[in-house]
Specification:
Distance between the termini: 60 Å
Largest sheet: 7 strands, mixed
Shape: globular
Radius of gyration: 22 Å
Number of strands: 18
Strand order of the largest sheet: 7-8-9-3-16-15-10
């Protein structure tokens, strides 16, 4: 079955070239979990009539023109090349089917997509069990767009389960302000500008050093040798209550992202301490992926494709280096310190122009040395850090795909040289934390247990603090 397209070429963005180069090839893996089997899903019709028209990139390949520049070229799409329906053996236990699924998910995450056809594929899995559940896996090349863009595309294929005529709604992506702004004196303004300038120079310099010279310590979460992107991986997830996270947020007077980051950092240190007590004070940093769009919520795909859009389609992301707080020598650090330190660090870094200046330097390097050189630098940044953290906001209401209710939604990144990726997704009042770990190096189950312990410990400590009054 083919989808015909007229030939058309558009330039590939610099970031799109970084993520699809000879040294770096990054994929986004998204999983939709359904409450019912999807044998009757009209897959090819949906892909042809709904998915492909969303964006020309879904029916394009990356080519090099006569001037050596990479462009998107639209081609005929044979949908059968992009749809996979594995058959799991019948008569197995639920536990064995879970293992089959996670082995399959980890396997396809490791595979390279052919460059000779559009850079995406879909895997449809029905479980031959009594609960009759099913899953759809989307594998999309990061060169097509970032999580914000691809989530917008995915949402274009889905409706509200309770009433398809109503739009899906989302928690605000705008961070809450903890302090009311007040007029500043000249001295305060000057001091703020000077502080921002110093932070900008410091952050930019540190970012350059971290991408070229300084590496994190080797620890139970960072193997530290080249070739981690070719090692077998494991993908698993766990859930937390958003209501509990909001309770922690209100009591500490921080943001939801601060709470999540603090829980993740504390869980990581607990795991590191369990595996090697000396690593609880090692030098470890996280690369936190940030959306650089000036937006407060998702836009429609048509709006994203508008050249003047505030939230345009593409890879509008940047990396933020955030040190992972250390446990003290006795291992009895106040767990809430992990949230407060994360809050202060991220707030300070966002107020500097370091990430903007770093992005400008990468653009200059790309023009002088070529996109492959920048891709190599980004790979170095990933490999010299300990963990990559990414998060997306999902709908508040339940979604459905052609009357098939979606009970769960999560994603991860694959193809990078790091040993640990942590992806965070909210959906229907639940926060899904997904771990992509290097198999045989990271003890996935112990890490999950440490994350759960970190959440419970932080929640218990926060409940002892009175609610912050609302101003």
């Amino acid at each position: 079955m083919e989808h015909q397209k007229e030939e058309q070429t558009d330039p590939v963005s610099p970031v799109g070239q970084y993520f699809n180069s000879s040294v770096l090839c990054i994929y986004i893996i998204a999983v939709l979990e359904f409450e019912v089997p999807i044998y009757d899903l009209q897959t090819y019709a949906l892909l042809r009539d709904v998915f492909l028209p969303i964006n020309p990139r879904f029916s394009s390949i990356m080519v090099q023109d006569k001037d050596g520049k990479k462009r998107w070229k639209q081609v005929d799409v044979n949908l059968k090349d992009h749809v996979n329906i594995p058959i799991f053996p019948e008569g197995k236990t639920v536990e064995l089917y879970d293992k089959h699924f996670h082995d399959y998910l980890s396997s396809i995450a490791m595979e390279q997509l052919p460059q000779s056809r559009p850079l995406w594929e879909v895997h449809i899995i029905n479980y031959p069990t009594n609960d009759a559940s099913s899953s759809v896996i989307f594998k999309l090349h990061h060169a097509l767009g970032d999580g914000y863009s691809l989530m917008g595309a995915l949402l274009s294929c889905l409706q509200r389960a309770d009433d398809p005529s109503l739009p899906l709604s989302f928690p605000s992506l705008k961070q809450s302000k903890q302090e009311h702004s007040s007029p500043k004196s000249f001295c305060r303004k000057f001091s703020s500008m000077l502080s921002s300038a110093c932070n900008t120079v410091s952050d930019c310099g540190w970012s350059v050093l971290k991408s070229s010279i300084i590496s994190d310590d080797k620890t139970p979460i960072r193997f530290g040798d080249e070739g981690a992107d070719f090692q077998p991986i494991s993908i698993s997830s766990m859930t937390f209550s958003i209501d509990h996270i909001k309770d922690i947020k209100s009591r500490l007077g921080v943001t939801i992202n601060d709470v999540i980051t603090g829980i993740v950092f504390y869980g990581i240190r607990l795991y590191m301490q369990d595996m090697n007590s000396e690593s609880k004070t090692s030098h470890s940093t996280a690369l936190v992926l940030l959306n650089t769009r000036n937006i407060e919520g998702y836009q429609s795909v048509n709006d994203m494709l508008n050249t003047k859009a505030n939230g345009p389609w593409g890879n509008k992301i940047t990396f933020l280096h955030v040190p992972i707080p250390k446990l003290n020598e006795t291992g009895n650090s106040n767990p809430l310190e992990f949230i407060w330190k994360s809050h202060n660090t991220i707030k300070r870094k966002k107020q500097s122009l370091g990430i903007v200046l770093t992005g400008t330097l990468l653009e200059i390097e790309g023009k002088l040395r070529g996109q492959e050189a920048v891709a190599k630098r980004i790979r170095g940044t990933l490999s010299k850090s300990s963990v990559v953290i990414s998060n997306l906001v999902g709908p508040v209401q339940q979604m459905s795909l052609v009357n098939h209710p979606v009970k769960g939604l999560y994603f991860t990144l694959a193809g990078g040289p790091e040993s640990l990726v942590i992806s965070i997704m909210s959906y229907m009042g639940v926060l899904r934390v997904t771990l992509k770990t290097e198999k045989g190096f990271i003890d996935e189950q112990k890490l999950k247990s440490c994350m759960q312990s970190a959440f419970q410990t932080i929640l218990q400590a926060a409940l002892e603090i009175p609610h912050q009054p609302k101003h």
